[in-house]
Amino acid sequence: MIKILIADDHTIVREGLKQIVAETHDMIVADEASNGQEVLKKIREKKFDVIVLDISMPGRSGLDILKQIKGQIPEIPVLILSIHPENQYALRVLRAGASGYLTKESAANELIDAIRKVSMGKRYITPSLAEKLVSDLNLYLKNPLHETLSDREYQVMCLIASGKKIKEIADMLFLSAKTISTYHSHILEKMNMKNNSELIYYAIKHELID
Fold first, then answer.
1. Where do the domains of the chain lie, and which CATH numbers do they carry?
2. Which of 37, 64, 88, 146 ranks highest by number of CB atoms within 10 Å?
3. What's the pTM?
């Protein structure tokens, strides 16, 4: 029996995932968590075979939690679940140690196969992501500018490029507007850009936003 920990801050999402898992005979949702600290607490208390982790939870980002999980229990497979399209975060989370990446839109059809595959120590990569990995190989070998950003800076950059205001981003990430403004300044400096127009153009060119 594959024991799963589901981590998502939305009750309705957790319930939906539990219903999908309930239709199988070889896996069970052994516990739930609504934020990163709960995840870290529960993996110290119990043994799980797979963690299904939302990348956008309140407080510390899912990427931060992923890295801490892999630091504490490197062998446990973590399947990232996200509202963001693959081209925004999939490569980054795989490099951080995730065993797979699923969008919430595709979870109903792909969740069970993904859990089974990562529970066997394999990576779960969708055909579309595999195609992108091949087509973008040369680009990523050349270390594009956004690869110089920290995970939090990258997250803020994507939100700015998608049209979100500083205050909106601060509210979404449970941070102060001043902190987001600081990230904004660091992003422009690291990427050698003068304004958001250049940032948006870059994000579109590199397919980091829809």
1. 2-127 (3.40.50.2300), 141-205 (1.10.10.10)
2. 88
3. 0.68
